């Protein structure tokens, strides 16, 4: 019996659907709590080529929810560990492991040639960077997010509205699994739903997962969904994300991190400010400058940009710097 017999016998899949799955090229950004279940189901289904993009390394605190890894993997690159495990799961699938962090500099190359991109990074900056790139390249984006015991999955771009159409603003506060916690099955459910949405798009199931948002509340055991096919794209130039390497010497550079968070600013000539400094027509660039606002996750930079944009109409770009590397004692 064929390894795919149980899915090809579905009338919605059949031989034609399996052929489409086998020809598909999927890029998964993030091999953590969302990426692990998504990758397992995509590779198990026989997707022709799966690319794993993740610069992180396995840690002990990952193991309660990231089911591709074992205790013996602690310290290894996630993309390599995941690639090894998935290659053993299905030799039909070409597995490509790329141990790099997503950035505005490499996003176009990473998604090039993809039939579907899965956003499993669960990062504000990564989601907007991917949405902007996928919208421009007409590539479907399946984005998921999980925190605590809730989350969402949405299908964007490629004829559907972008992430910015549904989420034109970031939340007032940001939290992560590291700061707020998450239960393993929650990311398992949402990651599996991302894989299902990708397979549904590849095989042409209707209704399309693109233009659909599903909210998951696993405390109340409740799922709710809505379609956003007609959501308009935000007017005006959005606050885009750039990489630190794209800073120009003439830029008006603001580092919103405190000295306790980042002893050295992003550049030697960057100014240190907090978000609230911009709330009352505070610092502003010269008319011929570009404003570049930097913080760890991108959330404070976004908030400061909203304030700055209310009294200054120049170009504003954001940088999410991530964690500051710490030397081991």
Can you give a write-up of this model?
- The structure is a single chain.
- With 329 residues, this protein is an alpha/beta fold.
- Helix content is 29%, strand content 19%.
- It contains 10 helices and 13 strands.
- Strands 3-2-1-4-5-6-7-8 form an 8-stranded mixed sheet, with helices on both faces. A 5-stranded parallel sheet has the order 9-13-12-10-11.
- The radius of gyration is 21 Å and the shape is globular.
- The C terminus is likely disordered.
Please state the structural category: alpha/beta
Q: Secondary-structure element sequence?
A: HHEHEHEHEHEEHHHEEEEEEHE
Mean pLDDT: 93
Task: Tell me how many strands there are.
Answer: 13
Nearest-angstrom radius of gyration? 21 Å
What quaternary form is this?
single chain
Q: State the low-pLDDT regions, or none.
A: 325-329
Enumerate the strands of the largest sheet in spatial order, edge to edge or round the barrel. Answer: 3-2-1-4-5-6-7-8
Q: What is the distance, rounded to the nearest whole angstrom, between the alpha carbons of the first and last residues?
A: 56 Å
- Beta-strand content estimate: 15-25%
Q: How many helical stretches? A: 10
Helical amount: 25-40%
Main β-sheet, in a few words?
Answer: 8 strands, mixed
């Amino acid at each position: 019996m064929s390894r795919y017999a149980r899915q090809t016998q579905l009338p919605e899949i059949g031989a034609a659907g399996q052929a489409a799955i086998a020809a598909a090229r999927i890029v998964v950004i993030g091999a953590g709590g969302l990426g692990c279940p998504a990758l397992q189901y995509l590779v198990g289904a026989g997707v022709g080529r799966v690319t794993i993009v993740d610069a992180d390394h396995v840690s002990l605190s990952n193991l309660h929810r990231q089911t591709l890894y074992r205790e013996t993997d602690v310290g290894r690159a996630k993309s390599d560990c995941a690639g090894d495990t998935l290659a053993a799961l299905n030799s039909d699938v070409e597995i490509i492991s790329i141990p790099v962090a997503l950035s505005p500099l490499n996003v176009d190359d990473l998604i090039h040639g993809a039939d579907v991109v899965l956003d499993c990074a669960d990062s504000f900056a990564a989601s907007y960077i991917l949405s902007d790139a996928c919208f421009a390249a007409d590539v479907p984006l399946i984005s998921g997010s999980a925190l605590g015991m809730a989350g969402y999955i949405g299908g964007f771009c490629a004829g559907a509205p972008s992430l910015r159409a549904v989420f034109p603003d970031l939340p007032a506060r940001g939290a992560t699994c590291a700061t707020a916690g998450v239960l393993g099955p929650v990311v398992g459910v949402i990651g599996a739903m991302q894989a299902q949405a990708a397979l549904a798009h590849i095989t042409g199931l209707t209704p399309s997962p693109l233009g659909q948002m599903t909210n998951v509340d696993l405390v109340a055991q409740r799922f709710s969904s809505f379609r956003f096919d007609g959501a308009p794209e935000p007017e005006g130039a959005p606050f885009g994300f750039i990489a630190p390497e794209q800073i120009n010497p003439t830029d008006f550079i603001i580092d919103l991190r405190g000295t306790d968070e980042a002893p050295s600013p992003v550049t030697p000539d960057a100014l240190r400010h907090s978000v609230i400094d911009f709330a009352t027509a505070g610092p502003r660039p010269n008319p011929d400058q570009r404003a570049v606002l930097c913080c760890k996750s991108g959330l404070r930079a976004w908030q400061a940009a909203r304030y700055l944009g209310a009294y200054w109409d120049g170009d504003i770009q954001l940088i999410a710097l991530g964690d500051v590397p710490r030397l081991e004692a």
